[in-house]
Amino acid sequence: MIFTCVNSFAALITDEDAVNWLDWGGVATVSAYSSRPVPDFENIAADIRRVFPRHAELLENALTFKEIGRFCFVHAGIRPGVQLARQTEYDLRWIRAGFLDHIDGFGHVVLHGHTITKSLWPEVYSNRIALDTGAYRTGRLSAAVVRRDALSHFVCTELTETGAIHVGEWQPD
Prior knowledge:
By secondary structure, the chain is an alpha/beta fold. It is built from 5 helices and 8 strands. Helix 2 packs across helix 3. It is globular. The two termini are 25 Å apart.
């Protein structure tokens, strides 16, 4: 299992980025970690370290990217034309423009999240695989299964009307 660095409380770059993150599920994320009625952003890191030390350790040690065979796993994407080793952490965590509309190869098939897919299901392109299925609003969390240097299938969880979590395999058309 590979954990790439996510847009965590520690990764907020600018005030504008913070506002965007909060609008796209950040408030729910922070609220889930804090016992305070209104998320206390000054103390949230201490709350997480105290109550969820393994989560904090995971976030602090997450990779910015991981290459395995013909695949590159990253949170948001990569800047076209820039060697992987020279990518900025900002691009790896935040890029959209220039990456999502890039149609040529990257040297790897890039598996990424960060931008919710239009279909709300994983989407496979020739140069990338988009995995963000909008879990905060759909209840669907998705992962790619890669075997023998090839995409095998997806595992998607879904929250049912009764509150149960259904886990199933999914193949794109």
